[in-house]
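User: Hey, quick favor. My workstation is busy. Could you predict this chain's structure for me?
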Amino acid sequence: IEEVKNQIEAVKEERQEEVDQQIGEISEMKWYINDRGSLAEYDGYGENADRMRAIGQVFPVLFFLVAALISLTTMTRMVEEQRTQIGTMKALGYSRYAIAGKYIGYAFLATIGGCIFGILIGEKILPYIIINAYGILYVHMDTILVPYNLYYGVYATVAALFSTILATLFSCFKELREQPAELMRPPAPKQGKRVLLERIPFIWRRFSFIWKATVRNLVRYKKRFFMTVFGIGGCMALLLVGFGLKDSIFDIERIQYHQLQLYDASIILNTDAELEEREALIKELESDSRVAESAISLLSQVTVENKGTKQDVYLNVPQDLSEFSQLVVLRNRVTKQEYALKDDGVILTEKAAKMLDVQIGDRIVIQDDTKGNLEVEITDICENYMGHYIYMTPALYEKIYGEEPEYNSICFKMKENQIHALEEVGETALGGSGALNISYTGTIEMQLDDMLGSLNIVLVVLVISAGMLAFVVLYNLNSINITERRRELATIKVLGFYDNEVSAYVYRENIILTLIGSAAGMILGKILHQFVIVTVEIESAMFGRNIDISSFVYSFLITMAFSVFVNLVMHFKLKKIDMVESLKSVE
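Assistant: No problem, here it is.
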């Protein structure tokens, strides 16, 4: 027994020495402290919130400008319709300020009432709809809180009061400058003038009488012309921005994963595993008959700097450039020219280049904990929408780092008829110790679709609101037009025009103005779309800059539909014009 005990003690001492030796060989430990921002779910929720905040900072301004135009046209119509009453009150001795106070009070009460209604409804219903749409993504966050925000309510009310009362003052004092005798008469019709087309005889003489009258009327009522073009153009621009946002945001998934990154999955290799185990995994994947192409590369996160501005990007160093080009396309976003990696510089993705404020030919610094600051030149800037990347050749990596790259990832693409076996291939790869994890492009696409799909309700709200604004603008301007030309329209009825002909006489002008406004709106919408896209972009992604032709078509058709609807409503108002109006004396 004593002998066995001695042997056990000897073995213990020998093992303890081995353990102590192994402990001594352990390098100094590193602590990695991550906050909750490192969680993809938390980060994604924050990005969604930032995206909504950015949209909320842009669109209210656009809607407010159109709403200010509506206020101006509404109060102008009201003051002009009560021109005789204003002249009578002025003749009775009421001061200009007392008369203006009546309309200012009306504008004040109407605006306050509208603001209260808008705050009570707008700060509850619309946010609830949007947040409820996001609930699809965050099913465990089922408590929706939509508190009233006093700051936004007061801010919007003050802005609305300012624009409405200013428009009322402008309309009132324009009329009050005239004498009471002039105000109590109907306003004199606008004086007609020769138009530019009349100076081009070979065009002008081909017009019929009706079209000549229409062209002259468009130039004759300049205020209506510009207000209609601006109003319709603004609404058309809002519609185009709404549809364009959908095109730009939803297209990034298709372009990123079907035109730029063509692989179906990416495997991160286990660098703690033996080299033979990693090589065995790579050979097994390359020899799999279900896999079409594969490419090995070094993928690591680095920090790049330019003039004090820092940005985290993924460094991608492909082992074989020809294999890599089959799975990752590096190209110019505008010209679609494809780039090839060169040994004299790196290729940087577009959003990262923008955030670092660098161009082709500039030099940036790659910060490394062990190698220090490494300076490289940018040879090209490539199209990319999700994440930030910097690409370089193995030769350039070895030159600036002083060592060969340690490849730690492999991406692969399945054959078209074997795509169903993707997960099976991935599970086989994870079965060995050479793979650390795998990410499927299809899964990322689904997550992106879910995230972007929640924006649909926001875009629907924007489009409906813009359409309603278009209707109100058209209705107000048409009402003013008919009021101003009541005697003229009654006169042409006396001359033998039927109701349908009178309506067509006015419709031609409305349709032409709508067409001109829509054309202006397309130009303005394109400019606004570029501005809005840059504003609502989040840091980790770049949205598309394109607007599909279908969006232009849809915006135009919606605008024209509202124009036709307003014309139909105005037809009944035109029928009620009494021909006796033309026989009344203006004295």
